[in-house]
């Protein structure tokens, strides 16, 4: 093309107009032809979830229902500027010492929509991950458990999942986390909390709820983690125990709480050293922003420890959030593992001290006379019980 062709010349305007008109008419005819013909798209495209394209998405809510991205969002190189200066040696040490198997509750209709985005984000950081479904799927390497799907089969599925893990993977980890396909977990912080405990203690942790079970139970959505000993007791003693619900129905998390109590698995205290929560049944926004919810919201009646408002709600070493949309999994991954305020370098606080089982049970056992436990006031009221829940020196 000669340079002179680029400039506007007399006569070229009408030619451009005719070309444009011709193109428009041709395009319109082609579009009419396409839409009037039944076009069989390849299987892959027909299976696709229609992406939620909001014409002008301003708030996070607009995209809350959006299907996660088809393509992975990619990775930053480990040697580029910011990441080259990271020191993950402590996290790597804990990865070896506090081995976690994560199993994710999912179902065939969520494999691609939700579970895939769990796999691409936080689940990678577990020592081992299993997607528990009722269908095998190479996308996730999912396990096909012999259960029917649906909310009313979740309890059956949880029992089958732990039986499967007990039979095939018990030696591959020390701790066993159950999460949903809309739970987001900061695995390093889970290891940090668990470091104080031996996996030979019968204990489990999560977002602790008060009703239905004497020692409380852990909310299903925020995820809960069982020690190896707790898994053994659950599969060997609880599942066959008539005190434990034998059919597959019921609220999965409540039934789990009852069964574990029946085989003397302790409901642990997952709050941090200053009493802030670490497992959350909602997205961060929900816990962080005060007056977001009604005073008679069920969560406030259910929660075992009275939650503090505002920034006091949540530990800097929080472990899990629930109802995280597929897109938000990637957002949290970015905020937690990438975005850094330049010039502020965090050094990890020292590892917590290992607790003996006695130290954990100590404050929980309200039958111990007060004189044997010097720091305990008269046990009895729920409030004093709650205060004493915290193991000493943590
Ligand atoms: C990384 O941190 C560990 C302690 O967490 C320290 O011992 C080590 O020297 C650090 N490495 C570098 C390269 O700074």
From TrEMBL:
Residue ranges, compositional bias (Basic and acidic residues): 77-86, 384-394
This protein's pathway reads:
Protein modification; protein glycosylation
| Keyword annotations from UniProtKB, A to Z | Disulfide bond, Glycoprotein, Glycosyltransferase, Manganese, Membrane, Metal-binding, Nucleotide-binding, Signal-anchor, Transferase, Transmembrane, Transmembrane helix
Regions crossing the membrane: 20-39
In short, the EC number is 2.4.1.122
Q: Which GO terms describe its molecular function?
A: glycoprotein-N-acetylgalactosamine 3-beta-galactosyltransferase activity; manganese ion binding; nucleotide binding
Q: According to Swiss-Prot or TrEMBL, what is its membrane topology?
A: Single-pass type II membrane protein
What are the start and end residues of every segment in region (Disordered)? Answer: 50-89, 369-394
Places the protein is found? Membrane
Stretches assigned to the Fringe-like glycosyltransferase domain: 100-263
Q: Which cofactor does it need?
A: Mn(2+)
Looking at the Swiss-Prot or TrEMBL record, what is one Pfam family this protein matches? Fringe
Q: Which GO terms describe its cellular component?
A: membrane
Domain of life according to the entry: Eukaryota
Subunit structure, per the record?
A: Homodimer; disulfide-linked.
Q: Which family does it belong to?
A: Belongs to the glycosyltransferase 31 family. Beta3-Gal-T subfamily.
Give the protein's function: Glycosyltransferase that generates the core 1 O-glycan Gal-beta1-3GalNAc-alpha1-Ser/Thr (T antigen), which is a precursor for many extended O-glycans in glycoproteins.
PANTHER family to which the protein is assigned, alphabetical: BETA1,3-GALACTOSYLTRANSFERASE, GLYCOPROTEIN-N-ACETYLGALACTOSAMINE 3-BETA-GALACTOSYLTRANSFERASE 1-RELATED
Q: What is the protein named?
A: Glycoprotein-N-acetylgalactosamine 3-beta-galactosyltransferase 1
From which organism does this entry originate? Answer: Anopheles atroparvus
């Amino acid at each position: 093309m000669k340079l002179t062709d680029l400039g506007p010349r007399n006569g070229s305007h009408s030619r451009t107009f005719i070309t444009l008109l011709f193109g428009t008419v041709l395009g319109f005819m082609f579009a009419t032809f396409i839409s009037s013909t039944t076009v069989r798209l390849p299987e892959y495209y027909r299976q696709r979830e229609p992406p939620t394209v909001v014409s002008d998405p301003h708030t996070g809510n607009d995209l809350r229902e959006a299907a996660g991205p088809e393509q992975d969002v990619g990775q930053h190189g480990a040697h580029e500027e910011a990441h080259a200066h990271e020191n993950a040696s402590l996290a790597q040490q804990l990865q070896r010492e506090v081995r976690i198997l994560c199993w994710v509750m999912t179902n065939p209709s969520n494999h691609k929509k939700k579970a895939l985005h769990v796999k691409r984000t936080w689940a990678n950081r577990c020592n081992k991950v299993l997607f528990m479904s009722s269908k095998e799927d190479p996308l996730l390497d999912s396990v096909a458990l012999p259960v029917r799907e649906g909310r009313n089969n979740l309890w059956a599925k949880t029992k089958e999942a732990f039986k499967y893990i007990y039979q095939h993977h018990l030696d591959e980890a020390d701790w066993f986390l159950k999460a949903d396909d809309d739970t987001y977990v900061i695995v390093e912080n889970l290891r940090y909390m668990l470091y104080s405990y031996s996996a030979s203690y019968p204990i489990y942790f999560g977002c602790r709820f008060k009703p239905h079970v004497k020692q409380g139970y852990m909310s299903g959505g925020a995820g809960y983690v069982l020690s190896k000993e707790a898994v053994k007791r659950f599969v060997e003693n609880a599942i066959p125990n008539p005190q434990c619900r034998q059919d597959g129905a019921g609220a999965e998390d409540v039934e789990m709480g009852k069964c574990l109590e029946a085989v003397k698995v302790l409901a642990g205290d997952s709050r941090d050293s200053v009493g802030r929560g670490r497992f959350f049944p909602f997205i961060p926004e929900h816990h962080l922003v005060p007056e977001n919810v009604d005073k008679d919201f069920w969560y406030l009646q259910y929660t075992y420890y009275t939650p503090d408002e505002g920034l006091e709600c949540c530990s800097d070493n929080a472990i899990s959030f629930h109802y995280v949309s597929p897109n938000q999994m990637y957002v949290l991954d970015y905020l937690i593992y990438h975005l850094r305020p330049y010039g502020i370098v965090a050094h990890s606080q020292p590892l917590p001290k290992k607790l003996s089982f006695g130290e954990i049970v100590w404050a929980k056992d309200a039958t111990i006379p007060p004189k044997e436990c010097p720091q305990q006031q008269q046990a009895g009221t729920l409030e004093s019980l709650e205060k004493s829940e915290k193991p000493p020196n943590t």
